Amino acid sequence: MTYTTRLKNSPVTFRHLTGITPEKFDEILRQLQPRYETWNANRLGRKGRKREIGGGRKFSLELEDRFLMLLLYYRTYVTYPFLGFLFGIHESRPGRLFKPLEPLLADIFRIPERRIEMSEDEIMAAFFDGTEQPTNRPKRGQRKWYSGKKKRHTIKHQVVVVKKRKRNGRGKRKLRIAAVSKAFTGKTHDERMYEKTRSHAPPGIEGAGDLGFLGTSLVVPIKKPKGKELTKKQKTWNHRHSSQRIVAEHGIGKMKIWRICRDQFRGQRKDHTLMFKNIAGFHNLMFA
Question: Strand, coil or helix: what is 221?
Fold first, then answer.
């Protein structure tokens, strides 16, 4: 019996430890299997390989267990030694076993960086927000990674959250992560991220953001003039804007139930965008 099969016997625990249900796990695994077989065939048949196909060390876990290990890592963000103990392998093996699956998952989810691939008929509004995560202090370029807001070194992304229209006028409106930008240094301002990413809402849909996007084409709150106060009408408008834009915080907040994008990031910064997009994909799988 595999580790996955044993854990599926308790669906509630399965979701607590992975962030998704056993049914969603199987749905993604069915799409992952053919992509993995193609990747593995290319790996074994690559130019310059000296061993014949079938030779060499075999993977110690089945694909479903390796996928489970990746989900446990994303959801709980435990260390490799702890994962190795759980799955009965050496502490150096977890990364080697599940790292090849990350780009394959990204190919399934296909989260764009700037273009929102949804039509006016599908969404009601698009909300832009920046999110940053603590990261290890770099050996070089420390100043550019230092966030004055968080008072520590961080890595940032621009996230676009869209509110979907109800189907047939029924049901609860759902939130979808429509785009995740590439990673930026902690020093980068939200307005600068927006200009560099060149993201835009679909035609007919108005994009909105907070005051961090002041000076962009997005709809933002009215800033209080220096030495003056906002009028009652302006305060009412700001309150209405904030009550609508808060969905961006809700969408990003649900992404962070996967602790790998909430706790201090221990990995290499070049891998952060791939991980963050995969978390956005799992979010959409469960909540959109």
Answer: coil
Q: What is the pTM of this model?
A: 0.92
Q: What does the alpha-carbon distance between residue 210 and residue 213 come to, in Å, rounded to a whole number?
A: 6
Q: What is the pLDDT of the chain when averaged over all its residues?
A: 91
Among residues 120, 109, 128, 110, the alpha carbon closest in space to that of 165 is found at 120
267: left (phi over 0), alpha (psi -120 to 50) or beta: beta
Which residues lie closer than 8 Å to 25 by C-beta, 6 or more apart? 4, 8, 14, 18, 67, 68, 71
Q: From 119, 282, 128, 287, select the one nearest 203 (Cα to Cα).
A: 119
Token digits for 120? 């006016």
Q: Encode 105-143: b = buried (16+ Cβ within 10 Å), e = exposed.
A: bbeebebebbebebeeeebebbbbbbbbbbbeeeeeeee
Helix, strand and coil percent figures for the chain, each rounded to 5: 45, 15, 40
Give the pair of three-digit tokens for residue 255: 């992404």
Q: What distance in Å separates the CA atoms of residue 34 and residue 204, rounded to the nearest whole number?
A: 38
Residue type, 161: V
Instruction: Retrieve residue 228's tokens.
Output: 């003056």
Per-residue model confidence (pLDDT) at position 169 = 56
